[in-house]
Amino acid sequence: MERQRRKADIEKGLKFIQSTLPLKQEEYEAFLLKLVQNLFAEGNDLFREKDPKQALVQYMEALNVADYAASDQVSLPRELLCKLRVNRAACYFTMGMYEKALEDSEKALSLDGENIRALFRKARALNELGHHKEAYECSSRCSLALPHDESVTQLGQELAQKLGLRVRKAYKRPQELETFSLLSNGTAASMADQVGRGQNSGPASSPPETTSWGSSVVRALNSLSGV
């Protein structure tokens, strides 16, 4: 029901912007944003339904409307424009249009240089186009951001093999060390401060074993963190 309503809103919206009917500026900006958001959402649903061609149509329409808005001095959120580029790149890649996928990935990165999805799409497109060294550089940045992501790891290993690099498995830090690191970085300092206050200004009736226990924990944590 909701999707049918969204499709109807898209159809009405596209008809409206092809007319010259006036709107108040605030209403006009809200209308354009909603239309692009609806097209984006419809494209996402179609892509999830494994229909990249129809998803591509929705993303293209959304970006065309965004360009139209910009020509009419209406700016849409950069985050939304970036997502549209990233998702359209996924459609192009699925359809084997790697040059187009690369182009959209790079435009997405120009909007958000830290977007890992865009960087991953770029790496995959470059790989398919035979630019393995550049693809590996992009993949390496993805690996640093998402060291445990299976898709990122597989792509990195594939590219490493193509470049004749040594493939190695990642080091996985034991959970106990992760826990102690968190404690030593934050909790130890906090506990030391609390213990210090307890020794210097706490009530005379404070149990001595509490202070002693606290000091022991702080010393143990400090020894773990190399302090």
UniProtKB/TrEMBL annotation:
Q: Does the keyword Zinc-finger apply?
A: yes
Alphabetic keyword roster? Metal-binding, Nucleus, Phosphoprotein, Repeat, TPR repeat, Zinc, Zinc-finger
Q: Where is this region: Disordered?
A: 193-215
- Alphabetical list of Gene3D superfamilies matching this protein: Tetratricopeptide repeat domain
Kindly give the PROSITE patterns that the UniProt entry links to this protein: TPR
An MF annotation (GO) of this entry: miRNA binding
Polar residues composition-biased segments: 197-215
Give the subcellular location. Nucleus
Kindly provide the name given to this protein in its UniProt entry.
Zinc finger CCCH-type containing 7B
Main location as per UniProt: nucleus
Give the record's GO CC terms: nucleus
GO biological process entries: miRNA processing; post-transcriptional regulation of gene expression
Which segments carry the TPR repeats? 82-115
